[in-house]
Design brief:
Layout (H helix, E strand, L loop, with lengths): L23 H5 L16 H15 L3 H10 L19 E3 L5 E3 L12 H4 L5 H17 L9 H4 L24 H15 L1
Antiparallel strand pairs: 1-2
Helix pairs in contact: 2-7
Length: 193
């Protein structure tokens, strides 16, 4: 989308969220663009957050419920969730003296600001299912798959364009399910036009 990143507006020290989910649209309208529309890929959490709000408005469902029903369950990705749980990995950092220091856990989750940009937690098993679904959808464009019309939806300006895809098939899963969500958002947006 080419929106400025401006993460400092919503994410404070110690994983404190500075804004509520309802603040996305009022803030996005004031963010500048960094590239002209559809000329290049520029990742921004704000774009995913905005798309998540559009998805909720269009579907009448909460973002996490929609993703679970239309994407995760059909792909049998049973261990992914948008809520924090007891099995979440603990974040650590290494201090100058080479000791480990426990950091506060991520606070972005279902219902918080940026839930659509980074609110899903996954397992390795489910990420492998995700990679398989992505490859199958991108190489077959079969209409019964949860990820439909992949080659149509993903354009040549993205780093995962079809000419790039066969050589680096695992590069597409590097950012959890955001790529799938982006596909759903793009289809949803096109339906709204």
């Amino acid at each position: 989308m080419g929106i400025q990143r401006s993460n400092q507006l919503w994410h404070g020290n110690d994983n404190v969220l500075l804004l509520d989910k309802a603040d996305v649209i009022p803030h996005v309208q004031y963010l500048g663009s960094v590239q002209p529309y559809k000329t290049t890929v520029h990742y921004s959490n704000w774009g995913y957050a905005l798309a998540g709000q559009l998805m909720e408005k269009e579907s009448g469902e909460q973002w996490s419920s929609y993703i679970r029903k239309h994407l995760l369950i059909p792909l049998q990705m049973n261990n992914m969730d948008a809520k924090a749980g007891p099995n979440d990995a603990k974040p650590y950092t290494v201090l100058d003296d080479h000791s480990f220091h426990l950091l506060p856990p991520p606070t972005v989750q279902d219902g918080s600001i940026m839930d659509a940009s980074q609110g899903i937690r996954s397992t390795v098993t489910d990420m492998l299912k995700w990679c398989q679904a992505w490859i199958k959808a991108y190489t077959s464009d079969h209409e019964t798959l949860p990820l439909k019309q992949m080659s149509k939806v993903m354009s040549d300006i993205t780093p995962f364009a079809k000419t790039f895809f066969p050589r680096y098939p695992t590069a597409h899963s590097s950012n959890t399910v955001n790529r799938a969500v982006a596909v759903y958002y793009r289809v949803l947006y096109e339906r709204m036009l």
